[in-house]
Structure formats: structure tokens, C-alpha cells
Write a structure and sequence with these properties.
This protein is of the alpha+beta class. The chain has a domain of 165 residues: Jelly Rolls (Sandwich), CATH 2.60.120. Helices cover 17% and strands 25% of the residues. A 6-stranded antiparallel sheet has the order 1-2-3-10-5-8, with no helix packed on it. Strands 4, 6, 7, 9, 11 and 12 form a 6-stranded antiparallel sheet that branches. Strand 6 and strand 7 form a beta hairpin. Helix 2 crosses helix 3. The chain starts with 21 loop residues before the first strand and ends in a 54-residue tail after the last helix. The C terminus is likely disordered.
Amino acid sequence: MTSYMDYTSPATQFSADLNCNTLFKKDDCNYINVLGIKQLNTLENTSLLDIFLSKSNVVEPHYHQNAAELVYCISGSAVVSLINPFTNELLHFPITPGQVANVPQGWWHYEVATVDCTHLLAIFDAPTPEVILGSDILSKTPANVLAHTYCLNEAMVKETLAPVKPKTFIGPPADCCEPVKAGAENMQAANMAPNMAPIMAPNMAPNLAPVMAASNMPYYMPQPASQGFGYQPMSVHAYYGQPYVQQPYRQLPYAQGIPAYPNAGTDNE
């Protein structure tokens, strides 16, 4: 990208305060600040997100249609998960202070904090970190389309997706209902060692708990390629100079192409 910045102009900016540029705030422990060319006009082809998370909070599944992302852990710890569209694998990369995980342009990914006070810096090779969020995809895709495509009950799809709010950014939402939280706690209990699952998850039948524990892998545990999601490449956007090379994929009953929702941009929430 060629820049024609007039560095003699009195409007030229050489510094900025990210604390004044909040992209999204869930609460005082979970929020995202943004810095792009809209906030600092001399940045040229760089931008970043300053991400603060408490334990188990998630930067929701999403992809950046115009940039690759380098996630650097400043403090705490997190797991960066992504789907490799060329191998059909869901990959997980735990990072701690000083470590990074790289997400190529257009790849579906998400980040989960594994301890409180986690601080991540996401750096992009574009002047504005544009994004298409999973919550936007789920809330904007008509329920009848999802029901017909995957042979689901339309009423149940509507009921299930009704709580999904566009531009969630950090989940679970602050107003997440208790049954959902309880379900997450039960899942975490089942993900423990099989011999501990009957104790930690008393609501399960004792003879089923070890099976559930073995089958419900934690979000931070790698899955073998044989358990791939059958992911298909998403639509190529105009932002791409070179589209992805199409590879042969197994035809599994999953998304064949997710509709793109206009990017969230960098407007403050």
C-alpha cells in the first residue's frame, strides 16, 4: 500500500493513547483497545489491538479479511486456536509472556484466556484491522437457511441463536444466563481426568462420566487430523491480491462458505 502522507502538515500525528481508543468493553477486566491509521495517521501499513482478558473469556471466533495477525502475549496466558484451511485441522497454540502465535490472513480463529489478567497484543499488516465476527455471521444468516442447509428444526435454530448478539467481540456476554454458565462448568469438569469426572460432575451418571471426559476434549487440547472440522475455504475477498489455492477437501456436513458481513471496522462501541 502506497502512502502519500504530508509529514509537514500540522495534522500529522506521531503518537497516540490507546486508552482513549476503545473498540469494545465488556467490563473493567475484559476489553479491547484499537490503534489503526484512523487513530494515528502516520501508521501506514500497521495496526494493532490491545486485548485484556480474564480467565475463560474468549475473543470470539472470527477472521480478518484484510490482514494477517501476530498475537503476542504480554502477561498471563492464552490459547490461540485456528483452522488451517489446507489441512482441515483445528490447531491450538498456548502462549505465555514473550511467546507469539501467527494467524495467516483470512483464517478462522479465536483466543481464550487461561488465567486472569491476561494481556495480548494483536499486530496486523494492514492500516485498519478489519474483522468479520462469528456473532455477526450467526445473527445475520437467516434461521431458515441454516435449518434447510443442515436439516435442522427451524424453530429450534431460532431459539438457540436468539441470544447471539452482533459484535459480541468478547464472550461469554456479561448477561450470560446461569444455566449456560453451569453447562460450561460441567463441561470443564468432564474434561478432567476420567477418574475425577464422576466426582467433579455429580449430575452425570457415574458410568457415563469417563466416556464424556474422554470424548469432550478441552478447548486448549490439540485434536488429531482425523477429527478435522471439514472446513471449506471462505469466499475470496477483494482485499486478497492472490486468492487461496483450492485444495481437495472431504465433503462433510459443515459450512461450505460463510457469508461475509461488513467489517466491524474500528468504530468505538
